[in-house]
Every structure is written in C-alpha cells, then in structure tokens.
C-alpha cells in the first residue's frame, strides 16, 4: 500500500493576516493558501514519547500530507481546515525517505 493511497481526506491550509476592523482594532483574518490538499487526519491515540511534553499534552490530531511545493507551512502563520473544522498547528515534522522529504506530519490541536 502506497503512502498516497492512505491520504483519504482533503484539507485547506489557511494563512493568517492581520487586518483592521471598522473600529481600528487589529484582528486576525484567514485566507486559503492551499486548497483541497490530500491528507489523512487521525485523532491522537497511544503515546508519542518522542514529542516535547507540552505538544504531547495539547495534541488532539495528527495530519499526514505530502509536502506542498507552493506553501511552506509555519506554525505561527498557518492553520488547517478539514471540512470546516479548524486546527491550530503545534508542530510540523518533515519525514525524510530516500534522501528527500517524503511527507509531513502535523501535530494539531482542535480549535473551536
């Protein structure tokens, strides 16, 4: 079974920009930076002792995807939307196989 055949979901990677509201207050607004990316999202189960403790405690889901060519995902500027459900990115790991990046593992926290 190939990695790509496991990518049974799609997600949007959203980019945060600060904008001013009508009262002049700075607020975060979000725009889609990458649309309908193939991915796989799973609730966290079992122990991941290789994660920093704070991230381990806050992680609710793990998302797997190919590394996008058009976007470099940064935890401070991006979030993930899967079917309208928003997730904060806690950690992005590049998984290297055969001398290059095979895919990304994103450790996520469910956001209301």
pLDDT below 50 for ≥5 consecutive residues: which ranges? Answer: none
Largest β sheet strand count, sense and barrel closure: 6 strands, antiparallel, barrel
What is the count of DSSP helices, taking H or I runs of 4+ residues?
1
CA radius of gyration is 15 Å
Structural class: mainly beta
Taken in chain order, the helices and strands follow as EEHEEEE
CATH fold name: Thrombin, subunit H
CATH architecture level-2 label: Beta Barrel
Task: Record keyword descriptors for this entry.
Thrombin, subunit H, mainly beta, single chain, 1 helix, 112 residues, globular
What does this molecule look like?
There is one protein chain. By secondary structure, the chain is mainly β. The chain has a single domain (4-111), classed as Thrombin, subunit H (Beta Barrel). The chain is built from one helix and six strands, in the order ββαββββ. It has one helix at residues 53-58; strands at 9-20, 26-43, 61-65, 78-82, 85-97, 100-111. It has a six-stranded antiparallel barrel with strand order 1-2-3-6-5-4. A hairpin with a 2-residue loop joins strand 5 and strand 6 (100-111). The protein is globular. The mean pLDDT is 90.
């Amino acid at each position: 079974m190939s990695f790509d055949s496991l990518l049974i979901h799609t997600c949007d990677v959203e980019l945060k920009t600060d904008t001013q509201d009508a009262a002049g207050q700075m607020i975060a607004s979000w725009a889609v930076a990458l649309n309908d990316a193939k991915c796989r999202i799973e609730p966290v189960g079992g122990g991941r002792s290789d994660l920093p403790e704070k991230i381990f405690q806050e992680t609710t889901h793990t998302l797997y995807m190919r590394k996008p060519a058009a976007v470099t995902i940064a935890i401070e500027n991006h979030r993930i939307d899967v079917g309208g459900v928003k997730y904060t990115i806690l950690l992005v790991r590049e998984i290297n196989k055969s001398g290059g990046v095979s895919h990304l593992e994103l450790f996520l926290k469910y956001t209301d």
